[in-house]
Amino acid sequence: MVAQKKLGVTDPDEWNEPLLPAIPNTNTDAYTHTHTNTQTHTHTNTHTHTHQASSRSKRGDAREFFLSRERNLSLSVLLLLGCFSALLVPAYLPSGTPLWTNDSTPAANKALLDHSAALLEGVCLRGRSRSRLGSVPFADRLSEVGVFLQSEEAGPWELGPPLGLRGVGQTLKDALSTLTESGLPPQLNGSTCRRCAVVGSGGVLHGSQLGAHIDQHDIIIRMNNAPVFGFERDAGSRTSIRLLYPEGAPLLEREYQNTSLLALVPFKALDLYWLSSVVARTPLSWWSRLWFWRQVVENVPLQPRNFRILNPDIMHRAGLVLQDYAQQPRTMVPTLGVCAVVMALQVCDEVSLAGFGYDLQHPASRLHYYETLRMGAMATQVVHDVGAETRFLRQMVKVGVVNDLTGAI
């Protein structure tokens, strides 16, 4: 419109004559009639095309509004993953706030080291821990429990794994047939008075400098994949017994060095099949691998004499005791940490704990001594009652059944 308007006027400032000659007024009516008909015809065609385009656009919009089945499924999966990420990922990311460690409290750290040194310098008293179990309500159920299974007829199993072994008789028999020894090996059974250190994975162990004191114990018990290499200063350098289930076994071969025993805690029948495979050095079938909830190690550099199966009665009895410390009645599945404490009470005269305790009041504090996973991740687990376990262990420390080397219980 602007170009046509410029062509029909005279610009007196730049030119002294019209840019184009004026259109004569003869045939004005004919021109007007013809122009009008042309506009009407054009308008009609334009309206028709516009209506058709509008109809196609609406149908296209309708098709785009409803997602295809494949896109709907993909979007649902993305939304579900997004929700889980919003809940879980923040607990696994490094925090901008300083993580709670003993490094920031040197005075308290020195007090813990002095306490640990005093315990080691004192005279070991035979049966000290078990003799004080009577001071803990219901803890008498934890005395005189068999530690390792020696045959498939070890007990009348009323419950299935992990609290018993009902329904897995043949699988258990096959697993036991691969083991060449039972009980404690000679190197762990020679002392007349045995001191045990049960080393948890708690972040409180980070910066504790307790490694040299832990190594002075006769038996050192660890759980799952808690590492030693690179953390010797805080966690010690050797392992007497490592309690684990397949998904929690260390993937790195070096973590099995300086290890006397691996004790399987069977949570399912497949765990016993895994043990048979590892001991006999036969590969797992692809079908078996599908049923583990994470990657499992298939090559453990230990001999058949270094493997054991933990007696499920230890977990069962510990669960019964924990029911009395729970705020609501429920079937208890104890953590491997509590199972390790109960096991230590059977084989040791004095029991000390290091790396135990959950600082749930500070979600940004360190959960494990070997990674930056934060305490808030505990809010996502529903299997264990850590509150009941804390109350139970606190009572055990109070009456002197166990010693708390890191002071977090």
Automatic annotation (TrEMBL):
<keyword id="KW-0443">Lipid metabolism</keyword>
<dbReference type="GO" id="GO:0006629">
    <property type="term" value="P:lipid metabolic process"/>
</dbReference>
<dbReference type="InterPro" id="IPR001675">
    <property type="entry name" value="Glyco_trans_29"/>
</dbReference>
<dbReference type="GO" id="GO:0000139">
    <property type="term" value="C:Golgi membrane"/>
</dbReference>
<keyword id="KW-1015">Disulfide bond</keyword>
<comment type="function">
    <text>Transfers the sialyl group (N-acetyl-alpha-neuraminyl or NeuAc) from CMP-NeuAc to the non-reducing terminal galactose (Gal) of glycosphingolipids forming gangliosides (important molecules involved in the regulation of multiple cellular processes, including cell proliferation and differentiation, apoptosis, embryogenesis, development, and oncogenesis).</text>
</comment>
<keyword id="KW-0333">Golgi apparatus</keyword>
<keyword id="KW-0325">Glycoprotein</keyword>
<feature type="compositionally biased region" description="Low complexity">
    <location>
        <begin position="33"/>
        <end position="43"/>
    </location>
</feature>
<feature type="transmembrane region" description="Helical">
    <location>
        <begin position="73"/>
        <end position="93"/>
    </location>
</feature>
<protein>
    <recommendedName>
        <fullName>Lactosylceramide alpha-2,3-sialyltransferase</fullName>
        <ecNumber>2.4.3.9</ecNumber>
    </recommendedName>
</protein>
<keyword id="KW-0328">Glycosyltransferase</keyword>
<dbReference type="Pfam" id="PF00777">
    <property type="entry name" value="Glyco_transf_29"/>
</dbReference>
<dbReference type="GO" id="GO:0047291">
    <property type="term" value="F:lactosylceramide alpha-2,3-sialyltransferase activity"/>
</dbReference>
<keyword id="KW-0735">Signal-anchor</keyword>
<keyword id="KW-0472">Membrane</keyword>
<dbReference type="InterPro" id="IPR038578">
    <property type="entry name" value="GT29-like_sf"/>
</dbReference>
<comment type="similarity">
    <text>Belongs to the glycosyltransferase 29 family.</text>
</comment>
<feature type="region of interest" description="Disordered">
    <location>
        <begin position="1"/>
        <end position="59"/>
    </location>
</feature>
<keyword id="KW-0808">Transferase</keyword>
<dbReference type="GO" id="GO:0004308">
    <property type="term" value="F:exo-alpha-sialidase activity"/>
</dbReference>
<keyword id="KW-1133">Transmembrane helix</keyword>
<keyword id="KW-0812">Transmembrane</keyword>
<dbReference type="InterPro" id="IPR051142">
    <property type="entry name" value="Glycosyltransferase_29"/>
</dbReference>
